[in-house]
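Support request, please re-run this one:
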Amino acid sequence: MQSALLILALTTSVQTKKLKADHKETQISNDICEYDIDLKRNTLRAKCQGQPLGVNVYASNAQVMSPSPQQGADTGTDGRGGSSPGHSYNAWSGVPPTSFASESHLNITASLAAMRQGLGVHKSAISNISTLLSRGDNDLRSDLQALRGLAPNDAAVRESIIATMRNQYNFMRTAILAHNAELSQVLGLLDSLLTLTSNWLETAHQSQQKLLQEVAHINRTMLAMRTTFSNSIRRRHRKKGSSRKDHCPNAVSAIGGGKPLSVPWEQGVVMTDAAHASDRTWVMKVDEETDQLLQYDSHVDIQYGLVSRYFSLPFYCEGTGHVVYRNALFCHKAGTRTVAKYNLKKMAIAAEVELSSAGVANTYPYQFGLKSDIDLAVDEQGLWVIYSTEDSAGKIVISKLNPHSLVLEKTWLTSFPKKFVGNTFMVCGVLYATNSFKDTPTFVRYTYDTSSLQGAIHDAGHIIFNNAVMFNSSQQASSIMLDYNPKEHRLYSWSNAQIQTFPVYFKRKE
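Re-run finished. Output below.
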């Protein structure tokens, strides 16, 4: 028997005394009552000093027994006098005490029961009246049959006919009026029933809204607890790794195996702010054009759809080259050659820059298309934009952007066509271009160092990149974005409804 007993009593202190273990009994007492709890038999015996004893039993199979006259001294009274008013309990229906029906629900239930009883009474009355009307009809037929046997000119016959018709008229009139009165009562009850039902539905709606608010409050509490825990871990991590701040490693030597995170969208862009040590992540779904930016407090929140903030941008973005850097979103403004900066704190456009003669609308995209003509990137040295122009004949162009004003600080022209590239990322001012967006694995086909102005085309096998978590599988990758986070030394990719991360390893310094 699984039950919980809630004893309501006025008390300021409670003392508990455990008896021998083999008896499995516990005695609880205060200034007013004593309670003997037998855990072996699952029973409770209470003795109070003439005070009302209320016991709420939350168990569907519990029983509350009234005390017998011989038990009065134990359960209702003691030697000092007083009496017990009896007992009251609530049988548990499978929900905790805090979820029991409210008083309004109980009142509505009682009113519905009373209305049902009243409708039954009126139904019986209407049935009786219908029976009387049928009987009166039969009596009228019998009287008319008897009158047909009398002489037609007899005065007594005429008087009998008149009396019979008058009696039947009065009877029918009375019965019909009574019938109408009963119907009026029924209509009144039905009207009250409609009102009561409407009130019940409104109460149920309010209860549902309250429940939803409580669930939302629980979610917010859990999110706050997780955020506090995550912040503590990040602070400790920053203390341990503070010496690596603004540190630019050597050239990339290898890219490790990936970790997947399934998401509900086939295509999208995932962004982290490399300028801040935070688990906060942003997502934009890839459509023809989009103006919706979703913010999550952690990667796990993405999987469970726990959006912490929505941004509705005053413009549309296109492509898959968006980045978040220093609390701002940078993206290719749809239908233009413009890169726009949107301040996430002020929720306003902070700066714009036009890339003259840059190809747009799949003029010079990556291999996968999706209007990926203009691609933004972040590394240890700051903000970059990768694109192609008519003047470069479709070759990759790299420009360094000022993250505050979006002024083009410097531009480099490479010798490798952008259309032949699966994707690119920047590390310490070096461009790394993959050979394919779908091969598993692929490799880094081209690199360009903006410091030495040296570009190089590499053969297969140079810096192998799995390009998918399950590489060498029958399913090809579809890596429609590839960005590097310099704080984490990790690549972020979006492929086949998965956000995938890959650790980046560097050559040792001599």
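Helices lie at 72-75, 103-148, 155-240, 299-304. The first helix runs from residue 72 to 75.
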